[in-house]
Design goal:
Layout lengths: L1 H21 L7 H5 L19 H15 L1 H15 L32 H14 L6 H15 L19 H7 L7 H9 L5 H8 L6 E3 L4 H6 L5 H10 L11 E3 L11 H7 L6 H5 L7 H9 L1 H16 L20
Bound molecules: protoporphyrin IX containing FE and 2-acetamido-2-deoxy-beta-D-glucopyranose.
Protoporphyrin IX containing FE binds next to helix 4, helix 9 and strand 1.
Length: 336
């Protein structure tokens, strides 16, 4: 057991190292390092003095959990996305509803869909024992997303830290700002533009759908009614998920039918073959302005790794609470 753990750690350290030296676009975040002692700004060394053990603790815990249940890695990546797109990366997505508080968890894109809350709570509990009142839930989400992607074989990046936790959530914004799988390309582009992302960055971030799963009712219309889908692929989903014309709403299919538990560029190769799972996936390669980017990522896995890492850094920087704004929650699911 001990030797397995050791070789696992060596393996991941190696992967991280390769990730860092190979990703020139990730290096520029060293500029963040230089200005790290400015207030109200994220920093790469934020917890170095107050909780130096935190990052290795999170990495060990998340890596073990994800290798034990690989879909969890997908769920944690999505949690960070759904946090950041609604009032910034402030852990607002983690706040549970109470009789007097309406949070984001029951908004349409989140309800019966988001997973991984219990793992975040467990990591938080460990950090509260190690360094009480120091490490924010928003930072746990950002680090857990990165460590999950790395555990599944994806690229690494440096997560800037110092986000604080919100005391509020925004149910309405969760419904309006998280993209629906029924959107066309133009609407996808504008949903991401609203958050400061280019169409190219939207295509790169969508590569997250190389891992994880979706429910039948979200792709039913696509597999029965759409023409830009490979017929045998549609038939497989209809019969073997199964996703019947009615019923089986919650039956799950992988976004990437080839390698859904590995973070690779297969998502884009599938799109070239008209094997996008939900409508919005195939929109990225459907004769429109983003086709060329899908081709580029399908042909160049390294380019995808670099661009995905850069876009994740950008997503993680969406309007964080810093300085004395917000709080460090004691429990991620509720305000102090
Ligand atoms: C481009 C617009 C996007 C749309 C329309 C979209 C839509 C969806 C939908 C409908 C699901 C399945 C939900 C369910 O079955 O309950 C899903 C799952 C997922 N999404 Fe997205 N998504 C988008 C972008 C992203 C981005 C930017 C990321 C992360 C960077 C992401 C990461 C994921 C992951 C990893 C899953 C699988 C989660 C799991 O298996 O638990 N998505 N997405
Ligand atoms: C196919 O499209 C028609 C017309 O929009 C719709 O009424 C029907 O419910 C769709 N079928 C499925 C299985 O989604």
């Amino acid at each position: 057991m001990a030797s397995v753990t050791h070789s696992m750690v060596t393996f991941f350290v190696l992967i991280c190292f390769i990730g860092i030296v190979s990703s020139s676009s990730v290096i520029p975040s060293a500029t963040t390092f230089v200005s790290s002692n400015l207030q109200n700004q994220l920093s790469n060394i934020f917890y170095n003095a107050k909780c130096p053990q935190a990052l290795p603790i999170i990495k060990a815990y998340i890596t073990t959990a994800v290798l034990n249940d690989r879909r969890l890695g997908a769920s944690l990546l999505r949690l960070h996305f759904h946090d950041c797109f609604v009032q910034g990366c402030d852990a607002s997505v983690l706040l549970k509803d109470t009789p007097t508080f309406k949070g984001e968890q029951n908004a349409l894109p989140n309800a019966n869909s988001l997973r991984g809350f219990d793992i975040i709570d467990r990591v938080k509990a460990i950090l509260e024992t190690t360094c009480p009142n120091v490490f924010s839930c928003a930072d746990i989400l950002a680090v857990a997303a990165r460590d999950s992607v790395v555990a599944l074989g994806g690229p690494t990046w440096i997560v800037s830290l110092g986000r604080r936790d919100s005391t509020t959530a925004d149910f309405k914004a969760a419904n309006s700002d998280l993209p629906s799988p029924f959107l066309d390309l133009a609407a996808l582009i504008s949903a991401f533009k609203k958050k400061g992302f280019s169409a190219d960055e939207m295509v790169a971030l969508s590569g997250a759908h190389t891992i994880g799963k979706a429910r039948c009712f979200l792709f039913r219309n696509r597999i029965y009614n759409e023409s830009n889908i490979e017929p045998n692929y549609a038939k497989t989903l209809q019969q073997f998920v199964p996703c019947p014309k009615s019923g089986g709403d919650n039956n799950l299919a992988p976004f990437d039918i080839t390698t859904s538990t590995f973070f690779d560029n297969a998502y884009y190769k599938n799109l070239l073959n008209k094997k996008g799972l939900v409508h919005s996936d195939q929109q990225l390669y459907n004769g429109g302005s983003t086709d060329y980017k899908v081709v580029a990522y399908a042909n160049n896995p390294l380019l995808f790794r670099l661009d995905f890492a850069s876009a994740m850094i950008k997503m993680g920087n969406l309007s964080p609470l810093t300085g004395n704004k917000g709080q460090i929650r004691k429990y991620c699911s509720r305000v102090n």
